[in-house]
């Protein structure tokens, strides 16, 4: 069985494992108050060209999302997010469990537009009796999105402008940020992010860490209060240095982006192979979550040797499968897959 | 600087690191639905002689506490716990943030008695207008306690009897369970725990894992619903196999208890050394958190070479320091410390 | 200014005011533990032919909704509700503030269908990894709906069947229940409700009480626990007898239904008058919230003498206005309004 | 049976009932956006000599407490309150249900001292790892307290000074504010309150309204956001004018204080009668909740003709009974009670 169902199948590259092994028997102060964590934070600030940013390490993505939103919203506020977003669909109501409504917006391609955000805000702020409605307090987008599409710099900037106009924070969930930055057509670097939002994450779990999400906070008040929220939500790791050493490794010699590039290149290979073999796409893009449309028969045939995610069951009976590449994906596995896919057509 | 401030200074023993490294490039299904996790759960069930128990892995202790309590309590119920307990004092209101009151009870030595629990329940159930009061729905104890004392089998059994009488669940927080089981005077084994409570944890973070708490659930309904609560609170690890392989290693060849024994033996050494040197104890016991009382001058003198936790500032100006041993504590460090302590008297 | 914007403009009919005045200087035990409340509950049980029902009085509708849902849902469950429902749109996130997601469903006419409910449930229960999704635990409908449509007995029964199949409770928000029961075409009586759902409200605020919603609970466990939830959410009235005496009055000599009939008859008059004058309807039905479509000019012209609710701004620039009748609406005001409306055409 | 168990046995004085009756068939805009509510707010601002204050009307006390605290605290903050306080003991965990811990302080006489508040704050702010602790964000006191004692101006001012020093809000729960203001020894007027705290309530339920608590908010940000919190917690009354007209009546011709004086004078009578008859007091003070200590036999004898609250069961087997006076208490009932009490000695 060759697995393509997600981008967190394997552990971590050798540099990360070695960093953990090397620090393993050092005696570290707890909770991330250790020199490795400090150094990792500095490396991230440098990579983002943002010496004032607050940087915090968390273990997982849902945890990061719920903490950022619970910290950034007032009790009567909600977060605007795409209907396809992870927080709206795949977190067992984690955001609502912190007391906040998700103001979901239907999108064409998993991406919010500045115009849509503006409409939600206008509609709220034009209400006579605003007090019956949930006030939009933040906007949540992910880069890449749940369906693999991605925002351009201009698109994010336009959303952020609307956010500033309506006194909202913008949160960019970067669980797959590296895979976006290295995808063909990307016009963004890590150093752009601090200008484009109030808070973003640099995902580790899917991009070369055993686990870990770095939260980069540009908003001063949010940053100052963030540690309290982390602890209260059970997100403070006793051995915080484990997150520190991993991000130290990932942000040394550009490892983070190199790993991302590997996945991005293989994603293009998968995409082009699928296209030339004549497959349709559920959403057609070049990032690391490829969503080809297969017949039931094709899906079953392939499932004997490969595992995919059943991303969506289409009304016509076909299946949108998710095929992910990651830093750990093997070139030969991709080639074998493409050759087997071709035979099905 | 030799550190004694807590029992989670170092990473993990070689067996645990090797287990991670070995599984690192395997392709694992996500979220703990992998063979390593299944195997680890079986090993734990065997060690606990409890084939029907639900076993779940979480990353950290506060996370475990808040999920167990949020899962086990109805909205109008609270948890009875010692005033010195971790949940009452050191979790930034994590339990209250899930909506539940902690019904705190002052104790002599960090331990609830069955009698105290009974009094809280009687007082509630005898109330005419119960609906104004928080109903006790669970009891929380930790083994060892926050101050290092421990429950005997009979003491826990008595508390559990009261719990059953008043339809409450009993939760034993075992962040340091192994250190209790291997302490001198312990009359309990892992196999006793399932008979003594509704749910307990087998702590990894402080006892040989890089991170991880195993939650063992004896209550059927709680067990069935537990995974939903885990995900909702951000506690579901994407690469759940990381927890699985660690607990596999810890529960192979009795590693977990061997590591605990190492810490327990050194704790006795520290205790006896302190005693013979004439130090008082804040709480006098033989487990891995020793709490000698030092003068300011002694504390400062030692702090040049050692780090301790300032556990409590006493009214007479002296300091109760916390000196922890763990699976990773070096015999020679303990000897040096005791010799330096003696010189201070 | 003649007001038609809602059905809670005036206080209460003379019978209700007199009942309060009469009991005013009696000495009542607090919190609804008084003979008037007991009697009112019995009258309601009789009217519903349901001697075992739990009956509880609350002050307002949002309060009733949030308490019923917080009491009836487990933390990881959500409630299925129409996208147009009051709880989804007009309660400032009150339901989410108790930790629960509203699983909203787009409807044709403000009414959920059994088929739609079934689809949500199927989709959830067919999921492989259910634990990422919010489990449907209750269904919320209102009778009449927010747009004035109403469920037939068969429609509610079909939804309730689906609820039972999927172990969900059905909650019927009856803020306007009487107005539904007395509307033309209604095939339901109060005595049918207990067979059609797990819990329902008999609205007072809009139907003849100064304030008050009676919650009738058929589910035994929900009923037993309900008082605790009421108190915890701040819904327990100190002078609960105020609710008791009002419902005593409303359920004596069929006052409740007589008041409803008055509103229902005038609603028909408004509807027929609008229709014969050639107005379109946003939703065309015969209940007490009439939603004619007006041009901007018509809306403004009428607003000089009347107040309406601006129910919706249509894409073509026209306005759906809400014209409500109630127990207090005057026949002559309706006639004047219809005559003025006719002149605008 | 003559009832003395609480101060909310009866409805309202004739002026309040008449005000409701008079406005009953007016057509009022909903939710307190009506002229009566506006006028009542102005009257309160005048009485408080505080033209800028935000004034909001709520139905009940627990509701007021939970809304004020949920609105005024950040998620990681808690409220300092006496262990005897209503919020800590008698609200079914309503505050914790909004996610906040109550930092309870043991008191001598139900009153927090500035010194005690300071110690809690110092202890928190001196902590090295503050992030493990609940940050004190507000202080809650009630005037009179749950045990009937009351704060002097200087005492409140001292607490408020500490609050300002540590960036906390001070909330004075005035469910019995009038009874405090009119008690012998009071050195405070309504006009002093705005200088002494961030937010306070002027209780109606126990002091002449059928129901209602006026929340007076001096903190600008809290005031601006307050309406959203009210609606979200189910506290917004549809017929808000009902609260408006009651407070209009109460704040016309000093009715509020006159009613309070009646209760206060009778309380003194009860107190002096008890004293001269030789009864001990659980807490000895002159306000409207008198707490004499009775033997079981005395308590039972009296309970044949009177109802009291069993306030506390004393270790020596005696009972602290609560005897309340209110605006509605009859002089002859007090005289009969005192005469019967005397006979028991």
UniProtKB/TrEMBL annotation, chains A, B, C, D:
Record field: transmembrane: none
Biological process (GO) annotations? amino acid metabolic process
User: Is Amino-acid biosynthesis included in the keywords of this UniProt record?
Assistant: no
- Which key words are in the record? Pyridoxal phosphate
Cofactor(s) required, per the database record:
pyridoxal 5'-phosphate
Which InterPro entries does the UniProt entry name for this protein? ArAA_b-elim_lyase/Thr_aldolase (IPR001597), PyrdxlP-dep_Trfase (IPR015424), PyrdxlP-dep_Trfase_major (IPR015421), PyrdxlP-dep_Trfase_small (IPR015422)
The name this protein goes by in its record = Threonine aldolase
